[in-house]
Design goal:
The complex is a heterodimer of chains A (about 230) and B (about 240). By secondary structure, chain A is α/β, with parallel strands linked by helices. Chain A contains 8 helices and 5 strands; from the N terminus they run βαβααβααβααβα. In chain A, helix 1 crosses helix 8, helix 2 packs antiparallel against helix 3 and helix 3 runs antiparallel to helix 4. The radius of gyration of chain B is 18 Å and the shape is globular. A 5-stranded parallel β-sheet of chain B has the order 2-3-1-4-5, with helices on both faces. Classes of the chains: A alpha/beta (about 230), B alpha/beta (about 240).
Chain lengths: ~230, ~240
Amino acid sequence: MSSRTAAAEATDNTPSILPGKLLVIEGIDRSGRSTQVQLLVEWLRHNGIEPVRTDWSTSPHISKAIHKAKAAGELRPITFSLFYAADFTDRIANVVVPALERGQIVVADRYVYTAFARDIARGADPGWLETLYGFAPAPDAVFYLRVPPSVTRQRVPSTPVKAIDRYEAGLDLGLSVDPGESFQIYQQRVFDEFERLAREYQFTVIDGDQDVDAIAKVIRKRTRSILDRPLTD
Amino acid sequence: MTVAQWPLSVLDPANPSAWAHHQFLGMLITVDGVDGSGRATQLDLLETWLRVEGYGVVRTSWNSSKLVAKTIAEARRQRTLTARTYSILHAIDMAERQETEVIPALRGGYVVLADRYVCTAFARDIARGVDSDWILNLYRFAVRPDLSIYLRIDAETSISQVMGIAGEATIAEADERAGVRGQLGTFFQFQERVIAEYERLIHPFDMVPLNAREPIRRQQLELRRIVGGMLERMDRP
């Protein structure tokens, strides 16, 4: 039951109680998030449930402009933030809310918390973000894959990265002239912010440094209780 | 390496009149008003006058940043975006111009003339049904203008002006622009709502209203009197 909004202040006329369920998987880059999103979707399908999946930065109207601006290195902290907000807003209006209204299960690869963590790491005011994202329906569960940057750094990215992503490494912030070091400092800031958000928004915290099946099992168990249905493994 | 900073959040949605003044050498003059209120005409004349008086002038115009221009244009044609997404795209346009055009010019001591500013975003988006606290919060990064002019005109006159310039086709386009997803009825009604919202913003945002139905020359003389007085007070050449 999505009876609250994701941020503290509700500012929308979105119905306060939607019949569907919203399941969110969060975590820093290379925390194993996409793998778990995929596994959760497949498991729901295996149980005869067709979920609606929504991934970060995939609005057909906005994401192209983001990728273009990122490739050109043209984004500043404020425009970086607003572009992702536009993408998110579009997906909420056209994908998430309609699906929840129909009573469907929505699986989101990242949600407002990724925006909060990254933008605060870039210097944004938390109150500004809470109001900006205040219209978003509150998730029924947020599965947070906790993996510190000292571990993610050793992992091979799931999608091939050309050299090092300028923004993923926080190179736009001038933290260090060394890309490797900048990546480390920026990802640590984002991680610290996730840790704070985990307490504030009561995430389901999962140790992401264990094997894929063990993580999936925790997610399934909690999902069963949210959906209140006996689902098989 | 240039360090990109988060712009200062200075506009408090709960108390717009306490919006902090900028500390740059230059001056920011904004002109708001509906289409057909004569913004471009008045700005052209003001710019010429300022240049003759020896000021360096930089013009910046609503929806002109190449970062989002195409996305906004496409969205307008296809009517695919909700009012809220559309607002954020306009905020991206403004944030980008603020950082690349407005602030560098103000820092360099220029007079910056902005064709439409935050109150245009507020009036249009509130008229489209976006919550006013939300939209004011969105623009908290904006630099406070030193002078904010509002060209006051009624809906009927403004529409006949627009048609006089570009003919009937413009109204169809304007209708499209008014109705993100087309749920809003006619352009005339929308224009009236936008005007009502501008009127509500005059006081909290310290806008100076000019009667846009007056002859162009008379409005311009009044505008020059206001701008001239302000430049004198600021003790500049």
